[in-house]
Amino acid sequence: MEFKNSAMATLPRPGETLLLLGPMFCGKTQTLMYLAHEAGHGGKATWVIKHRLDDRHGADFIGTHDGHKMRADGMASLMTGTRGGSGCVRDPLAYLDYLFIDEAHFFADLREFVDTVHATYPRLGIIIAALEHDYLGNTWLGIDRCLRKGGPDMAVLRLQGVCERCAEPATMTKLRFTALYDGTGGTVLVGGADKYMPVCMACFKD
Ligand SMILES: [Zn+2]
User: Fold this and answer.
1) Fewer CB near the last or first residue (10 Å), C or N of the chain?
2) Ligand 1 center to 179 CA (angstroms)
């Protein structure tokens, strides 16, 4: 079952982008890692990056909910973060076949970056994994800009999880409230890794 979504995904062709979208816990990162492995086994040069905000699996790793990890460089901005620095290869993108971007909804400059990369490195393939909606149901800005432009060089694959309430296919992410009576009539939000759950649209609106 875990690889159901992964098996649907294939590496994009040179110069194209694959956008993996879905709610939390639907296998986005797992699919990205699967494709990165496939590319690596095929002798392709790959680079996995993520937003610095996501440190759930350590500062230099991405990971799946069942414990698999992969090395990834965290950065706050794609346009500046992928330029390299002193002591590094000056332009790492020039040597790549595939660039993988996890938790990409955090990057406000995602659309600008993808356009720039494709214009500068016409043979580079990009694989992006991102939440489509936040827990309020709004489309993330960077993702919205990608979807609005679309085009033949950007394929979108929507992954579905399993609704935690009714077991229908989950497309949304809902905030999981654990309200505890604190003695004053207020509530305490118990957050962390168990803060969110995947739900179907009907349960999201419920
Ligand atoms: Zn449901």
Assistant:
1) N
2) 21
The CA 162 to ligand 1 mean position distance, Å, reads 8
pLDDT in tens, 178-195: 444 445 544 333 333 467
Is the sign of the CA dihedral 22, 19, 144, 192 positive or negative? positive
Grade residue 88 by pLDDT with cuts at 50, 70 and 90.
low
The CA 21 to ligand 1 mean position distance, Å, reads: 19
* Domain that includes residue 185, residue range: 169-205
In whole angstroms, how large is the CA radius of gyration of the chain?
18
Distance 19 CA to ligand 1 centre (A): 25
Structural domains in the chain (count) = 2
Q: Which two tokens stand for residue 116?
A: 């720039």
**Does residue 164 form part of some domain?**
no
Distance 172 CA to ligand 1 centre (A): 10
Give residue 127's pLDDT: 98
| 66 and 47 within one domain | yes
Task: Give the model confidence (pLDDT) of 128-139 as tens digits.
Answer: 999 999 888 999
Q: Where are the alpha helices (DSSP H) in 46-170?
A: 78-81, 110-120, 141-149
